[in-house]
């Protein structure tokens, strides 16, 4: 083999590896530049208008995008309604308290007027997640590549199988993320999404009242904070009360989540679990620096937004986001 051939092969391998590691597969920047130039602006305008009057929406959309990507990839399967024959993802227990579907519908209706049949619901959701969270900064917090296409299958059972549970330990969390080609670094960074939004009592109340079945509390939970939470969540069965995941800063996207983790005030076992592994806990320490957190969040969101995406002629462009064509 000639040296130059060997060099070309090495360069090719290095470039492919770079491509896989550094971007979202075959998604692109501004995929709709020619086919629907106003697409991203329309999404942002409507999202910002709605977030301006409803501050709980950014958390809803960030979580919705995560749930979409973890089940059959980011293909808007989370937006599909159940049918007579099929129970859809959005009915699955982990999906409890999803919301904001009406905003997606408003955006889709406008996009179908402007450029019919062009912009996928999967891209709309990825953009809305970014734009809703970014409203606070009037600037895009992370880059969203586009070109996703919509799937036509949505099963509640797959949501249950793929979405990590708040009672997961570190090993199970790591496995769940690895199954989506996400690293421990991504796991810790993306858990930072819990800097906004709320959790229902029943997802963590065993930590307050009956951790090992002996009427005890989780010893890894800050005792002062546990007392505060017991005051909010008065019983093991309370499934209506909600608590801010990042106390006093649950409407602000920042890195305080990692500060609360260090005070042993992570709300779920899955939050507290990030301190139980040396590697993960080192990442927590690194993300106490806000600049590092924002940079890392951009990078990990791009990876999450590229999980098992449909591209090219795969899937379809739905006409309405809640039903297949
Ligand atoms: C690491 C594994 C994760 C687990 C076990 C988990 C679990 C949960 C649970 C149980 C809730 C509360 C839902 C409720 O009571 O209504 C929640 C809320 C939330 N999660 Fe996660 N989550 C995880 C990762 C993520 C990721 C990767 C993101 C996004 C990057 C995210 C974003 C959110 C947001 C924004 C909320 C608040 C939703 C709202 O206010 O309605 N989570 N999560
Ligand atoms: C804000 O949006 C959420 C999710 O759709 C909804 O449950 C809530 O009622 C809305 N709040 C207001 C004030 O419109
Ligand atoms: C791993 O992902 C595949 C799809 O990519 C899914 O079918 C499977 O249930 C997942 N397993 C776990 C343990 O999350
Ligand atoms: C983590 O949870 C899994 C599943 O419940 C269990 O099999 C495993 O033993 C746990 N690992 C540790 C280190 O506790
Ligand atoms: C606590 O857990 C144990 C073992 O699972 C159970 O027998 C007991 O009834 C629980 N206590 C309450 C108050 O639910
Ligand atoms: C909350 O718990 C009650 C009583 O156990 C149950 O009937 C209801 O379906 C639950 N609600 C939700 C939203 O899970
Ligand atoms: C528990 O939280 C309080 C603030 O509420 C903090 O002062 C204390 O250091 C925390 N304890 C631990 C062990 O992190
Ligand atoms: C789902 O989409 C695929 C193309 O991605 C198509 O072959 C299949 O017929 C569709 N199934 C349904 C039920 O629409
Ligand atoms: C928004 C939505 O569809 N939520 C559903 C989540 O799942 C429960 C059942 O566990 C349904 O009752 C909700 O309607």
UniProtKB/TrEMBL annotation:
Heme b binds at residue 194. It is found in: Secreted. Pfam families: peroxidase (PF00141). InterPro entries: Haem_peroxidase, Haem_peroxidase_sf, Peroxidase_pln, Peroxidases_heam-ligand_BS, Secretory_peroxidase. One of its GO terms (cellular component) is extracellular region. CDD domains: secretory_peroxidase. This is Peroxidase.
């Amino acid at each position: 083999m000639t040296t130059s051939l060997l060099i070309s092969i090495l360069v090719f391998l290095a470039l492919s590896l770079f491509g896989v590691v550094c971007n979202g597969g075959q998604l692109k920047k501004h995929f709709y530049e020619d086919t629907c130039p106003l697409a991203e602006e329309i999404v942002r305008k409507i999202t910002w208008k709605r977030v301006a009057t409803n501050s709980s929406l950014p958390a809803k959309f960030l979580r919705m995008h995560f749930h979409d990507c973890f089940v059959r990839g980011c293909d808007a399967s989370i937006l599909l309604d159940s049918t007579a024959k099929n129970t859809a993802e959005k009915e699955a227990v982990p999906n409890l308290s999803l919301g904001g579907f009406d905003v997606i519908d408003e955006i889709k209706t406008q996009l179908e007027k402007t450029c019919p049949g062009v912009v996928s619901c999967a891209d709309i959701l990825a953009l809305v997640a970014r734009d809703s969270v970014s409203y606070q900064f009037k600037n895009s917090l992370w880059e969203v590549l586009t070109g996703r296409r919509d799937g036509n299958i949505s099963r509640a059972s797959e949501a249950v199988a793929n979405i990590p549970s708040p009672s997961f330990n570190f090993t199970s969390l790591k496995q769940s993320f690895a199954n989506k080609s996400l690293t421990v670094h991504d796991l810790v960074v993306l858990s930072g999404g819990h800097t906004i939004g709320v959790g229902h009592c029943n997802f963590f109340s065993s930590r307050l009242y009956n951790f090992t079945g002996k009427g005890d509390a989780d010893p890894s939970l800050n005792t002062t904070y546990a007392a505060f939470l017991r005051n909010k969540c008065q019983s093991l069965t309370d499934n209506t009360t909600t608590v801010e995941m990042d106390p006093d800063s649950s409407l602000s996207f920042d890195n305080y989540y990692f500060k609360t983790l260090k005070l042993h005030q992570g709300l779920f076992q899955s939050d507290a679990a990030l301190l139980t592994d040396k590697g993960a806990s080192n990442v927590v320490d690194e993300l106490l620096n806000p600049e590092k957190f924002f940079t890392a969040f951009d990078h990990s969101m791009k990876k999450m937004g590229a999980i098992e995406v449909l591209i090219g002629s795969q899937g379809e462009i739905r006409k309405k986001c809640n039903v297949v064509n």
